[in-house]
Automatic annotation (TrEMBL):
Native source organism of the sequence: Acrocarpospora corrugata
GO molecular function: oxidoreductase activity, acting on paired donors, with incorporation or reduction of molecular oxygen
Protein name listed in UniProt: Luciferase-like domain-containing protein
CC annotations in GO: cytosol
Domain Luciferase-like residue range list: 21-311
Pfam hit, one: Bac_luciferase
Family note: To bacterial alkanal monooxygenase alpha and beta chains.
Lineage: Bacteria, Bacillati, Actinomycetota, Actinomycetes, Streptosporangiales
Length: 340
């Protein structure tokens, strides 16, 4: 089993990692977004980020990460040292055997570099979720049984069915969550836990506390290991960072209103006719984003790390344009004096 605990590089007290969604900006294409994700993976490896994960989303015009296993294969083949994984595979959408075969294959191709993060949400609207799933009666409360079935396939302990290929060990399994359900389950199973602070900030500290209270040592971990996903954006100035952050808030607003679209430009976000309620929503969303010049972002991330006790920070940067996103990660790496 791979060692879960990463090594901090440079001045970072804990490892910094990347969450990628392959966002499709207005005026761009999914192909360009995926090429941008590949370039980000290469650069993140050069700068010393510990891992890059790909999220699973469906039915969203502004997000091209609908097939994490396919993208992971490409990113891992395009890099050599950075860990690559799913943040996460939405397990209710897939047969556990299929996931075991996919990640067994990835692990065979790139031993020691693949992470398998699992979530219990659909990653889409319910109509699309029904089209994805094997049965109309999928119950998200069966997630623990699905995790157990997947683990048995990866470990080779299912007496009737073997997942092929399967090596002498398996990729590390992480549980992902935005509430207490997966936090408690991860603790009881002795697995590492990743919390979605970037869209459920109010639940971060209660969920991490529940995870740590529930934790039972396992063959994987002797003590809890918690990572949090954080929206972070660094630019030359706080004003420019806010300008670049506004499209992400507008994209989230449109999704909540049932009108998902390609990722808007800063100009489009600035010109949008926000109602009073929409303005409140947008600035509430921005309150959970760590943005500013590089030193402001580093200070904000360190305050969050100390407050939550997180063992690792996974940064997601929702902006229009690959160059802007890559530049933000570079500025943060420099602020932390990271080394590859």
């Amino acid at each position: 089993m791979e060692n879960i605990r990463g090594v901090a590089r440079g001045a970072a007290e804990v490892p910094l990692s990347v969450l990628e969604l392959a966002t499709v900006g207005e005026g761009s294409t999914p192909a360009e977004a995926l090429r941008g994700a590949t370039e980000l993976a290469r650069r993140a490896e050069e700068w010393g980020y510990h891992r890059i994960w790909v999220a699973e989303h469906h039915g969203m015009p502004g997000v091209a990460s609908s097939s994490p296993a396919v993208i992971i294969a490409h990113l891992a083949a395009s890099t050599s040292t950075i860990r690559v994984g799913s943040g996460g595979v939405m397990l209710p959408n897939h047969a556990p055997l299929v996931v075991a075969e996919q990640f067994g294959t990835l692990h065979a191709l790139h031993p020691g570099r693949i992470d398998l993060g699992l979530g219990r949400a659909p990653g889409t609207d319910m109509v699309t979720a029904q089209a994805l799933r094997r049965s109309a009666n999928v119950d998200p409360d069966e997630f623990p049984q699905e995790v157990a079935a997947l683990t048995a396939f990866l470990d080779g302990t299912n007496a009737r069915v073997q997942a092929i290929p399967r090596g002498d060990d398996r990729p590390p399994i992480w549980l992902l969550g935005s509430s207490g359900f997966s936090a408690r389950l991860a603790g009881l199973l002795g697995l590492p836990f990743a919390f979605a602070h970037h869209f459920s900030a109010a639940n971060t500290e209660p969920a991490l506390e529940l995870y740590r209270e529930s934790f039972r040592p396992s063959e994987v971990l002797a003590e809890p290991y918690a990572m949090i996903g954080v929206s972070a954006l660094a630019a030359a100035s706080e004003e420019e960072a806010l300008r670049q952050a506004m499209p992400g808030a507008l994209a989230f607003l449109r999704m909540r209103l049932g009108r998902p679209s390609r990722f808007p430009t800063p100009e489009e976000a600035a010109a949008y006719p926000y109602s009073a309620a929409e303005t409140e929503f947008v600035y509430g969303r921005l309150a959970d984003v760590v943005y500013g010049d590089p030193e402001q972002v580093r200070t904000g991330l360190e305050e969050l790390r100390k407050r939550t006790g997180a063992d690792e920070l996974m940064l997601t940067t929702m902006v229009h344009g690959t160059e802007t996103r890559i530049r933000s990660y570079e500025l943060i790496a420099r602020a932390y004096e990271m080394t590859p």
